[in-house]
TrEMBL record, chain A:
Keywords: Signal. InterPro entries: Bact_solute-bd_prot1 (IPR050490), SBP (IPR006059). It comes from Blautia parvula. The keyword Signal applies. This is ABC transporter substrate-binding protein. The keyword Signal applies. CDD domains: PBP2_UgpB.
UniProtKB/TrEMBL annotation, chain B:
The chain crosses the membrane at residues 21-45, 79-101, 113-132, 207-228, 268-288. This is Sugar ABC transporter permease. PROSITE patterns: ABC_TM1 (PS50928). The keyword Nuclease does not apply. InterPro entries: ABC_transporter_permease, MetI-like, MetI-like_sf. The lineage of its organism: Bacteria, Bacillati, Bacillota, Clostridia, Lachnospirales.
TrEMBL record, chain C:
Residues 70-273 form the ABC transmembrane type-1 domain. It is found in: Cell membrane. Keywords: Cell membrane, Membrane, Transmembrane, Transmembrane helix, Transport. CDD domains: TM_PBP2. Belongs to the binding-protein-dependent transport system permease family. It is a multi-pass membrane protein. Signal peptide: none annotated. This is Carbohydrate ABC transporter permease.
């Protein structure tokens, strides 16, 4: 009986594997067929028939949805022969899954709004189309913030046009500063000052548990790499990995120094939190004097529980003023049959008018030079910091193995924070693992 | 008469209508489970990256697995999770079911209360538990403080994180075991208990000699599905700890998901899935072997 | 007799305490839903709201077309439950009571379905749906269109597959007294009649249990609708709940308010199903 079952199992596994292969084998030929259709579709385009584009954006919040619907309505009015189908999907892993299934089955959307990190992973797969031929002819090219345009480049080619910048900035709680006897109008500007303020802000209860901290330093979680990026960039390191030549920088002396500083801050006394759940951030809870925020979270905190109590500070400096700046882009699918129409929509969304609507409706920082003054005028103190942070911000390394890098760095940072390894050892191990990923490419 | 046909296999007849009866269920099963598993097996010997055409790489993925420290940790964690979740959950479920199998007007209220956690979506409940475990404002630490104990870091503590997830999972699923046990209890004839009462057997004796043996098929069912479910734990891990701190809570499916969908190593992720499947089959066969002695469910 | 009464009171006290303990997280969820935003994010934690408000409910419901989301979820759940109950119970009966060649192996095989986590088979299943022949503009070989993506059929059919249900029904039917079959055999009914006339009417307990479990799992399913649906008119309630979650910020009040409403149909389902739990076959059917 045992043998019979084993045999049967083997048999079924075998047949299902063959069945499976048959199912996939089809895909190859289908793609050929599709490519052919694509060329014929391009020629048919002029016949005045309505072109239908699918646009998938990341996120599901109603405010942004309303904004996109407004954009689509405006665009369709200007281009009556183009119809845009709006789709949305939650941020993060869910969005990756959605795109993966779409591209794997040949049903990917034509226009995609997604993060900078995806540039590294999806451009090498050919899922995003290069936009240079369009950008070269585009009159908005010179007006666009240079750093924002550069962040959309991979190997010198432009693949994405920036929409929502996501700069990481230092914010501080004026009220807690006052309580600790610090000047609420002079936030720290250097690491040393930050560490001093941090120590002064720490409060412990009778049992020695930290109940209020200075800088909200996370001890675990999936965005430890963002925090590390901020500190190593402030210390003059270009990025975790140099995307131009695959040089690993996360274990360079300057980087290790930055990690050691982070550890020093943590050892002085922090409320441990998991940065994968930014809801737990002590800064947002009002139990930390300083923390890292994005322009969106700053706005939300400033309108919510911490109303009027918080302010933004310029990025800290050890050797240079720098920070981490995420960004979401408009991408053109590498599979789309209607490149011209897709570009038209991206151009429409990137126009000064659309950008200003974005600021008015959602508070998104405009990233065109012509809108800079108008933007800063609205709230000189805060908006200058936001604009500068975007201008000097560096993003995630745009390499095909980016998601592995994050994972490895997060693990290494946790080892440092939980005293399992020294910063030097942890970063060396991380560098080794990243090297392995590079070799596997 | 029907009985003899069952006990003496020599004169066994073949009920051909059975094939038609299982056809609908089997058809859907084949198309949507068997064939996908076949595809996964095929991917597992390729370097499929979710987009380009897969290339055959032989057993490379299977060999890589044994050098992958994260994966090996995840296997350990998954086994720990299974052991710590399954048995308490079965025990609690059985106790609740037995305590609720009586006549009282309050029964529906209690039953609903115990089952309620199971009805809630895992995503929503994981977030509520994040609050409970929060080191600063969390309910748990507030209670500890109130009684003068020192506070704990819960999910941020590498030694404790897994048990926090385990506790939440037991809370969520003991109602499920309770319901299945309840439906098992209904199939025990009252006459058995009546006879036992006449013989003067007490509550404990009745439980040991009637309830427990009669519930064996149910327990067996819960054991098999419970093991398999625990092996594929993912959602609460992904939300509450994302595998951390220090990889203390990463599980096999968490690794599969991360490798496949976030790092685009679908070939490798598929190999991990096949290993998980083989391992589940092995455990299930063992459970069938040892767990169903002297019963109808015997398959050997 | 007196001792019995004391026991009963002790039982009530014990069970009540346990109930409160089990319900703490759910109570937290409900109280959050009726707290104003300042209170939710305040540093001092109160279990009960200081200022009661229902704004979260009205705001949450106004934020999307919830009638459509509820309609979709209800329809998908209902369809999946009805079909899986029918398919699974009849297959369970066949495996439990009929003798046919290969039954044990076929059954063992079915169990493999329990062992594959849905995250693993999701991509291949999705490919099958996208390439399904003659659906959604697809040709006979599955090329050209979008298959069953973004259709109710695509959402429901894979969920009908239920190794779990077959297994559960088989275990249940095995406990049925053999005398039932013998009586049926004497009456000369065939197997189909035996199932529909004797077994099915006596399966209320198991059908209620299975229907409940299936209903809850389909209702709470997130991953499959996420990849299968594209448009707003096809969204399910679980997908809709993500609208309260932005990149780094969660609108707790509205999220919890909507969650409370979303779980209501399942609680109703449980209340309807639970009265059958005690009406088992033997207690009601044979006496």
């Amino acid at each position: 009986m045992k043998r019979k079952v084993a045999l049967l199992l083997a048999g079924i596994m075998g047949t299902s594997a063959v069945l499976g292969m048959g199912g996939c084998g089809n895909k190859g030929t289908e793609e050929l067929v599709k490519k052919k259709e694509q060329t014929s579709a391009d020629t048919e385009n002029t016949s005045g028939e309505k072109t239908k584009l699918v646009f998938l954006r990341s996120g599901t919040e109603p405010e942004r949805k309303a904004y996109w619907e407004k954009m689509i309505a405006g665009f369709e009015k200007e281009n009556p022969n183009i119809e845009i189908e709006f789709q949305e999907c939650p941020y993060g892993d869910d969005f990756e899954t959605k795109l993966n299934t779409g591209f794997a089955s040949g049903t990917a959307p034509d226009i995609i709004n997604f993060t900078m990190a995806s540039l590294g992973t999806r451009v090498p797969l050919g899922q995003y189309a290069a936009l240079d031929e369009y950008v070269d002819k585009w009159d908005g090219k010179d007006d666009f913030m240079e750093n924002a345009l550069n962040l959309g480049k991979v190997n010198g080619k432009i693949y994405g046009i920036a929409v929502f910048p996501d700069p990481r900035m230092l914010a501080y709680n004026k009220e807690l500063f006052k309580e600790a006897g610090l000047d609420p109008d002079t936030p720290p500007a250097t690491w040393q000052e930050m560490l001093e303020d941090h120590k002064k802000l720490i409060k412990k209860d009778d049992s020695g548990t930290v109940v209020q901290t200075g800088f909200a330093m996370p001890t675990s979680g999936t965005s430890m790499q963002h925090y590390m990026s901020i500190f190593i960039e402030e210390n003059g390191v270009k990025n975790l990995v140099d995307e131009d030549n695959n040089e690993i920088l996360c274990n360079s002396d300057k980087a290790v120094e930055a990690v050691a500083f982070m550890k020093e801050v943590a050892d002085a006394g922090v409320i441990p939190f998991d940065c994968s759940n930014s809801e737990q951030d002590p800064f947002g809870m009002g139990t930390a004097g300083m923390g890292i925020v994005t322009d969106q979270t700053y706005k939300q905190l400033n309108e919510g529980a911490l109303k009027g109590k918080i302010a933004l500070a310029s990025p800290l400096k050890n050797t240079q003023q720098a920070t981490f700046c995420g960004m979401s882009f408009m991408f053109m699918s590498g599979e789309t049959k209607h490149k011209d129409e897709v570009w038209k929509f991206i151009e429409y969304v990137s126009s000064p008018e659309s950008m200003w609507t974005r600021y008015e409706d959602l508070g998104t920082t405009p990233i065109r030079e012509s809108l800079k003054e108008k933007f800063i005028e609205q709230d000189p103190e805060t908006n200058q910091v936001i604009y500068d942070s975007i201008n000097c911000g560096t993003g995630s390394p745009k390499v095909p193995y980016a998601n592995s890098v994050y994972n490895i760095i997060n693990e290494a940072m946790e080892k440092v924070m939980y005293d399992v390894e020294t910063p030097k050892d942890a970063m060396d191990t991380a560098a080794e693992k990243i090297q392995e990923e590079i070799n596997n490419q | 008469m029907a009985k003899t046909s069952n006990t003496v296999p020599k004169v066994r007849k073949n009920d051909n209508c059975a094939y038609i009866m299982i056809l609908p269920a089997y058809l859907v099963f084949t198309i949507f489970i068997l064939v996908p598993i076949g595809i996964v097996i095929y991917y597992s010997v390729t370097n499929f990256n979710l987009y380009s055409a897969p290339e055959f790489v032989g057993m490379k993925n299977y060999l890589t697995m044994f050098r992958d420290a994260d994966f090996l940790i995840s296997v350990k964690n998954t086994l720990l999770y299974t052991l710590c979740t399954l048995f308490p959950q079965l025990f609690l479920g059985l106790m609740l079911a037995v305590m609720l199998y009586r006549k009282s007007k309050l029964i529906p209220i209690f039953r609903t209360a115990f089952y309620l956690p199971n009805v809630m979506s895992m995503v929503c409940m994981s977030m509520v538990w994040l609050w409970i475990y929060d080191p600063t404002f969390g309910l748990l630490n507030s209670v500890l403080k109130y009684f003068g104990f020192s506070v704990k870091q819960w999910l941020q503590d590498p030694k404790m994180a897994m048990f926090c997830v385990v506790f939440m999972s037991i809370w969520k699923s003991c109602g499920y075991s309770m319901v299945i046990f309840l439906s098992g209890l209904t199939s025990i004839p009252d006459s058995l208990y009546e006879a036992a009462s006449l013989d003067g057997a007490g509550g404990l004796k009745k439980f040991l000699y009637i309830t427990w043996p009669m519930l064996r098929p149910t327990t067996f069912f819960l054991l098999v599905t419970g093991i398999v479910n625990s092996f594929s734990v993912f959602e609460q891990i992904n939300i509450m700890t994302a595998g951390g701190p220090l990889n203390k809570t990463t599980t096999i499916v968490h690794q599969i998901y991360r490798r496949g969908f976030l790092e685009f190593k679908m070939g490798y992720a598929s190999a991990l899935s096949v290993m998980l499947l083989l391992f589940s089959i092995l455990i299930t066969v063992l459970v069938f072997r040892f767990g169903s002695r002297g019963q109808d469910v015997d398959v050997s | 007799m007196k001792k019995k009464k004391v026991n009963h009171i002790l039982w009530i006290i014990f069970m009540s305490a346990l109930t409160v303990f089990m319900l703490i997280p759910i109570i937290m969820m409900i109280t959050t839903a009726v707290k104003p935003i300042e209170e939710i994010r305040s540093a001092v934690f109160h279990l009960l709201p200081q200022n009661f408000t229902l704004n979260n409910f009205t705001d949450a419901m106004r934020a999307g077309t919830w009638n459509i989301f509820f309609r979709n979820s209800l329809f998908i759940t209902l369809a999946a439950v009805v079909f899986s109950l029918l398919f699974n119970s009849i297959a369970g009966y066949a495996f439990a009571r009929l003798t046919f060649r290969g039954s044990k192996v076929l059954f063992m095989f079915l169990l493999i379905g329990l062992m594959m986590p849905p995250q693993v088979t999701m991509l291949p299943t999705f490919l099958i749906m996208a390439k399904f022949p003659m659906m959604g503009g697809n040709s006979l070989f599955g090329a050209g269109g979008t298959g069953m993506i973004n259709t109710y059929a695509g959402l429901v059919i894979p969920l009908v597959a239920g190794s779990f249900g077959v297994f559960l029904c088989k275990q249940f039917y095995e406990n049925f007294p053999r005398s039932l079959d013998e009586a049926a055999e004497i009456d000369g009914t065939n197997k189909w009649q035996t199932y529909f006339i004797i077994y099915l009417p006596n399966s209320k307990a198991i059908l209620a249990t299975l229907g409940l479990l299936k209903g809850v799992s389909v209702w709470n399913d997130y991953l499959w609708p996420l990849v299968m649906t594209n448009s707003e008119d096809m969204k399910t309630v679980q997908l809709a709940l993500t609208m309260f979650k932005t990149d780094g910020y969660i609108q707790w009040g509205q999220m919890m308010a909507a969650s409370v409403l979303v779980v209501m149909p399942m609680i109703l389902l449980f209340l309807c199903a639970q009265k059958y739990f005690v009406q088992g076959i033997v207690t009601s059917g044979l006496k």
